[in-house]
Amino acid sequence: MDHPKIDFLKEKYELVKPDEKPFLFFRKTLIASFLILAIAGAAFSFHVRATSDGHGGATELSLFSIIRNFILPGDDALDGESDDRVNFLLTGVGGTGHEGAQLTDTILFASYRPSTKKLAFLSLPRDMTVPIPGHGYQKVNHVNAYAEAEKTGSGGEVTAQFIGNTIKQPVQYYMRVDFGGFQELIDTVGGVDVTVDHAFTDAAYPIIGKENDTCGNSKASMNATAADLLNTSSGPAIPPPDYACRFEVLTFKEGVTHMDGKTALAFVRSRHGNNGEGSDFARSHRQQKIMLAVKDKVFSASTFLNPVRITGIFDTLQKNISTNLSVSQLMRLAKEFKDLKSDEVVSHVIDDSPNSPLYATMLNGAYVLLPKNDDWTTLQQMAQYIYTSEPKGVEQTKLAEAPTHTQKPTAPVVRVEIQNGTTVTGLGVRASQLLITHEEFNVIKVGNAVTRDYTHTVIYDLTNGAKADELQALKTFFQADIASASGWMKNDQVIPEQVAVTPDEPKPLPTGSKVDFLVILGQSARDVVMK
Questions:
Q1: 304 pLDDT band (50/70/90 cuts)?
Q2: 366 within some domain
Q3: What pLDDT does residue 113 have?
Q4: Which of the 8 DSSP states describes residue 9?
Q5: Domain tally for the chain?
Q6: Which domain holds residue 503?
Q7: Least confident of 97-101, 134-138, 141-145
Q8: Could you write out the DSSP letters of every residue in 56-123?
Q9: Last residue of a domain, one of 356, 376, 395
């Protein structure tokens, strides 16, 4: 029988028993590292729809190229960086399932100065009315919709170019997101904390998916005319339809509020809030607040160090964002904006206040915003000097430095109001645009006349003949008649083809203040204005 050998010197030379922990630790570390890289690869290997190349292509990075971007310098240079100014256009659309799915609900011009790490926002109102090639004068929120109807996927690029031309700024990059992606992104990061400046209640917030709900109304009530609703001679009056089921009541309290995606979307979309929060301009302020809150949450430790959230963010972007930024450029901007504090961002909102470059008026029954004096210069200067902290207008010292044309002596301005006396859409706006070629005229308001059956264009002189030369110039320009009636015109020097206005007829009245001439366009203006 063989006896086991015993080495009594083993303990002497091997005083410590071999431990398997170093190998196990290395193995676990290797597995963990592999998992982290796999998660990172899944997070960053996503498609960004690039609509600027005209081919509907996409940028895709592999796991190894992502790692390389983290370790080695990538191709993340930004257009405009050499001029120390990179401009973006951020837009939001309703998307599939929403009424006016491709109308831009949010239009935000953003500018970044790499040398100082400064970021500025300029919110443009969707009711700003502009000449859209091939479509006449329309609200600016239609640009994306028209482009998408003509060529799917082109809306982001076309809108960026159009806004850039309007404000005279090159827009190198665009990002467009729909409501669904906005809501999903906020839910993915765990919600955001937002400071509500003013408490408000919106009693008519539309419920998504119920825009066309009949709410139990009968076909008779839904198709009834106003006469049907009031007529009781043939029986009980038909009750008016009640569409309350399409809406819900929103209430936001003042102070810091934690919002999930649905609540945040309602916060930026609400249009009928009280306490001064019912305007589009108030919405623009709220939109900027949410955007900065999302930025803070995305770059917080709870998100940035959470692989699941990071993966979810990029998955959401993949499905809902349209941009011409490359992945490496997005990563570069993420690093640039990570430490940017919200209170350091300069924010501007274009509204209809007295100091705004736009004024509000009604055009063919629709609320629109038009440039004062038919001149976009003030808005363009606000975009040029966007980094200044002036809440309204532009600092005069900055304007003095602007590389504009030589200033001409200021001539007396003749104030004109134009009213459309026809049913031709956009006739008044088109007339005001043409009149800008005559520097002495200032169109202070464009709207519709009380009646829309004018055959000839009529000019009412409210200066008592004090500006005969200007009156004659307007008459020639519009090929118009000049109305003569007591209290309207006393001018022996102008001998027009008179239009009689009897004392019994209501006199057309200007709705603007201190108007010199009221021009009411008739059918005869079509050949003059629309040529």
A1: low
A2: no
A3: 92
A4: T
A5: 2
A6: 409-531
A7: 97-101
A8: --EE---HHHHHHHHHS--S---TTGGGT-EEEEEEEE--TTSTTTTSEEEEEEEEEETTTTEEEEEE
A9: 356
